[in-house]
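Anyone have tokens for tRNA-dihydrouridine synthase? Sequence:
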Amino acid sequence: MIGDITETEECQRKDPMDLFHSGQVVKICAPMVRYSKLAFRTLVRKYSCDLCYTPMIVAADFVRSAKARDNEFTTNKGDHPLIVQFAAREAQVLSDAARIICPFADGIDLNCGCPQRWAMAEGYGACLINKPELVKDMVRHVRNQIDNPKFSVSIKIRIHGDLKRTVDLCQKAEAAGVSWITVHGRSVEERHQPVHYDAIKTIKQSMSIPIVANGDIKTLKDAENVHHLTEADGIMVARGLLANPALFAGYEETPFKCIQDWVDIALEHGTPFTCFHHHLMYMMERITSKQEKKIFNVLSSTSAVLDYLSDHYGV
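Reply: yep, here.
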């Protein structure tokens, strides 16, 4: 649901590019299906996260259906800077989606990295890394059709086996006016193999726009190491933030204060029980025993979860 956002609030919007010019490494919450929704974005912003992405939204559905827009997108005036990630395969459809979202977000991102079969079968996600001309066309189209020069247009990619192809893709996107590029340092086929941070560094050295590194970052120390290895301008984290939403603030594991904050935020936002519970299961993974997990993970109502947290942790 697109909330009431006044023109004044729109004018107060920050240019997300300013983050990349601050001299600090930009700390970013990744787009995560089901998880990087408004309540979770509100939580990580409390713990030093600079920039948040929505879960991936299929642009064609978003443009076609008001119901899809209401289901897929919620925001509020504290939810900035915010990047809305779209899956798209046609320049005009992506531009239409960008035009609808423009008053409520700070930029859009084109997903060129999702390796899931359904996405690739539909022509979305990681198959786009093999269509550099189409990516270039989509970026240019959005750039030409959105009047606000502060509205960012970024892409998130995976790498090719032959890195020259990835550099070529990135340079084409840069020529079309892309704001920054996030690189997940694995190929489409790779899942749990080590991340190729050297490849991200090669891409960074070939470009003059900001590059964001993504893949296997579990702690703030990891983030600092990856920054040194890749020279990336930003660090994007997915699963690491699910396990510890306070990661960017330097906590080694989820502090109880963060669990309390999640309970407060989730209840205030009316977060559905399954999502509320799943986030807690991720957050408490490292701080609960096997026995505790057996009990906690099968609780089936908000009140049961709240009673458990109160009895065992004083939350």
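Residues 2-12 have pLDDT under 50 and may be disordered.
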